[in-house]
Amino acid sequence: MSDDIVSNTQSAAAEGDYRWYKYGVATLIAEMVIAVCVCGYSLYMAFAGLGGFPGK
Amino acid sequence: MNTHKVEQLIIATVGFFWCFLMWFATAAFSPSIADKYHLTIAALGLLASSALWMAPVGRIAAGWAADRFGAPRTFASILAVCGVVSIASAFTENYTLLFIERVLVAIAGVAFVVGIQHVSQWFDDSEIGTAVGLYAGTGNVGAGVGALLLPRIFGTDYQSAFLWLGVFALLLAGWYLWRGEAARDEHSRSGTARRAGDWRGTVFVWSRYIAIALMLAYAMSFGLEIALNAWLPGYFSQGFNEAILALGFTGVAGVQLAAGTFAAVQSFTASLFRPFAGFMSDLFQRRGWTPLPLVARTLPYAPRLHWLGIALILITLAMIMLTVAGLSGSLPGAIVALVALGVFISFGTGGTFALVPLLFPERPGVAAGFIGGVSTAGGIVYPLIFAQTAGIHTGYAYAAIFMFVPFVLFYFWAARHERDPAAHGIGYIAPDEESGAATRMAQTQSEVSQ
Fold first, then answer.
1. pLDDT score recorded for residue A4
2. How many whole angstroms separate alpha carbon B161 and alpha carbon B96?
3. Which of B85, B142, B197, B302 is 20 to 30 Å apart from A32, CA to CA?
4. What does the pLDDT look like over B258-303, one tens digit per residue?
5. pLDDT band at B73 (very low <50, low <70, confident <90, very high)
6. Considering only CB atoms, which chain A residues are within 8 Å of B268?
């Protein structure tokens, strides 16, 4: 996937004013990381309840 | 004015994020409002559902207005009206008046199609998926952020929250008017405005099979997303009550906390993976991937049609998976299925609006209004189906088999044309569209022959 992102960005950059694209891709990766963290937290709760987490 | 497409994307995204925040602010404070006015459960349900009432018709009108008057003026008007009414609702002491005011504030939800029109007027075909995905995905998070942060910042003082939300909306309206530009050049802007004045164009878009297919695809994705936002907390608290109690959560508050956390999985994945879905649509386009049977392979945007087709199949399968996990009684299994469903929903929402500006470049607002507006009716219909089936877990499979499978088949049928699918529909083709379709057809044939 990282190869795809790099080549996608490079091919896009070659076509014109696409310099923003790499920042756009970085933003979408950051957003996915947040979503994965929320999913991980929920899944942990499904197995272990609130055990060990802040807010217990 | 000296501007850049990224600035326009940021303006649209911030504006949409704030609109989503205002849209679902009522829901975030519904316990406080219910407590103050001693609302019954039925009245609370009415208040919750009222957030969706304005969306179907409002989005259609907003899409037309964006084409006709330009996105900055339309978006700023929505922000200003919603801001003023939100401020007024902060000083209201009568529940009936408060209810009416919050229904009016929910108009903020129609801003989605205006921003779509705005972004599509600035970005090229090869980057439109990522640009629209970033706009819509980041904006959609406003609902989750509102539910998470507003009660923590303002406590039960919903009136202060409504006041500040309204004040910032007015500031954003001023910013949008000041720095917003409707399109990257005057030629495309004036052409879009001129075509918006022709009602035949609206009839044209509404009668195209591919527009109807995309509307159903968006009903399968975004319509399902907002339906699940409302449905899932109740589903987990009832369908997995024993499992949640066994985990050590006690009392109504404990079960609500657990159910809300599990339900948030869908909201966060469906919102935050949406830009990735747009990126994948761009990637399919650049690599020329067309793996599905039946769906067109030679259209300039054929790979995007295939990406959306894959997303729709995955949504259908994930819905059945959710039913299987629920019937097996596995709470972790249901959450894994829900993660998959949320991600696939984002593929559907991102994939749909990576296509809309390309299929209807002459009327991006009208098309976005139809597809993004009518589909929100799903948010009202699906919970009724989930609630009416025999068991609380079976509604997902029921909706998948009896609604989604026919929707997917219709999509494959509508997307099969190798020559301009927008030319196929019910009834006539508006004269200017006919020539536009012919032009695009010639372009396509030229590209194929090359």
1. 52
2. 19
3. B302
4. 777 788 788 888 988 988 898 899 899 999 999 999 999 998 889 9
5. very high
6. 34-35, 38-39
CB contact under 8 A, B275 and A51: no
Taking only the tens place, the pLDDT of each residue in B158-195 is 899 999 999 999 999 999 999 999 888 777 777 676 66
**CATH no. for residue B390?**
1.20.1250.20
How many angstroms separate the CA of residue B116 from the nearest CA in chain A?
A: 17
CB–CB of A45 and B265 under 8 A? no
| Residues from chain B contacting residue A16 (CB–CB below 8 Å) | 124
d(CA A38, CA B269): 9
Q: How many Å from the N-terminal Cα to the C-terminal Cα in chain B?
A: 40
Task: Report the chain A residue with the minimal C-alpha distance to residue B285.
Answer: A8
* Cβ within 8 Å, pair A43-B336: yes
Cα distance between residue B140 and residue B226, in whole Å: 10
Contacts of B138 in chain A (CB under 8 A): 27, 31
| C-beta separation of B68 from B196 below 8 A | yes
Task: Flag whether pLDDT at B89 surpasses 90.
Answer: yes
ipTM of the prediction:
0.74
Contact B262 A20 (CB under 8 A): no
**Tally of structural domains, chain B:** 1
b/e for B339-352, b at 16 or more Cβ within 10 A?
bbbbbbbbbbbbbb
Taking the C-alpha atoms of residue A6 and residue A22, their distance in angstroms, rounded to an integer, is 8
pTM score > 0.90 for this model? Answer: no
User: Average pLDDT of chain B?
Assistant: 85
Domain range for residue B296?
A: 3-449
